Amino acid sequence: MPSSLHLADHAWTLRDLDPDRARDLACRSAEGRAVLEAQVVLAYLDWRSGTFERASLNLAAALSTLRTEGPSVWQARAASVLSCLAGDLNEPDLALALLDEQIQLCEALDLTELWASGIHDLAVQLRELNPARSRELLLQAQDAFRRCRYPIGDLLVNGNFGDLDREAGQFDSALARYRAAQADPMIAQHPSIEAWTLHGVVRASALGGYPAPQAELARLRELLASPHLDVQVEVVAALSLHLPPGDAAGLLRGVLDRADLGSHYRAGLLHEQLSGALEATGDDRGALRHLKLARQHERHAHAGQTRHAARLMDVLRGMDDTRARNAALERHLNELRTLHAQAQRQSLTDPLTGLGNRRQFQEDLQTLTGHDALLLVDLDHFKRVNDTLGHPTGDAVLAQLGRLLASASRGEDRAYRYGGEEFALILRGLPPHALDGVAERVRAAVERSVFPDVPWTLTVSIGAARAAELSGETLLRGADEALYAAKRAGRNRVCRWPLTPGAAPGADLGGLLRPLDAAAL
Fold first, then answer.
1. What percent of the chain lies above the pLDDT cut of 90?
2. At a CB cut-off of 8 Å and minimum separation 6, what does 419 contact?
């Protein structure tokens, strides 16, 4: 897989754990080949931060293209995020269609985390129509979230169980669920979820006749300054339950006047609360106007409710039918995945050694940071092996050397066959003082190795360079010149960049690079 896709996958993994880092990685992956994948990650982050319009536009475009490329995890991820956006924007039919697409892809591709997310979102859709089935699906989602260690799984499930309990009149249980969500360490990364659960505590306390939850109200007042649409909606709806009517009306008007509110799913509730506040202040005309607006939102929701309920049942039946067909489909998709993986490996892997090939090396070379380093490794007198012992023995030697270099690498490092008898090692996150020792250990390991059918000792010459001093093709040239110096100095040794002062790349390197061998170390 190209490195840009690795970055995009890492960004997706970090989207809830470290949003700033995820955004940085997504932007970097967009500079490579993973433009669509980066758009999906950035849209998720925009959605979570309240930038709905930009997220929807970018994500819709990305999903349209991803659909043409065949079923994939990124299509499922895009459908998942766009479904959530549609739900926030009160477009339930679109949200459900996307949710259906997500669940089908996840079941076909065996994507546990996204499947759990889809089942969770389906449970939310069913909350009013079929609370019992909603609870059943939430439990399935919770189990899957825990198996795949989705970081905000318990947080989401607790919040939605809180809503179900509150709507069922089980206020003690609802408060316990909301407060379990608030105690989750991940809630600090998600102010919209925090505001939603705080609103749940305030509303459950009011409906259950409990004292006003002062700690939650204080935190809501702190969140009031947030520009995030979902945060403001939840905060204002909650605080208005405990404010004098005039103050509540002012807050409610402020959020209802937001240009980006649109047909937000909470708009009807906000109009209804504003109507009550205005009535309490004696503004009967204003109260009536906002009550009508609340009823308009309610009628709009009810108009599609029957259709939406039927569609939900279709989705549930479709899930059952899909499971019945999945065995054959899964076999077919496994074959496709195997063929795709083979093609990917063949395009980026050297067939003799199993290491990354020159193309993979060139791609990874562009991702180095100042903490990384490069070794170029050349097998000394390899022509003698081929000429004396034959090419099959030469191939066996190269394959064994490839295995040796791979086994000598740390998990974050990578070995490549650069060409012929020349290999490369990219060393990630290597302290500056460690480069000489690592290179020498590689040289010594080869010298100590026994190569079957070769009756003499084989050695390598190594050129080393650090990415802090050079980069990209310049780093490659520096390591290559160091390798050339090692060979000129007698082979079976390590030389490293930099040149001594006054030297230029390509100059006569005799004496200009520092030779390293066991005695020097």
1. 51
2. 358
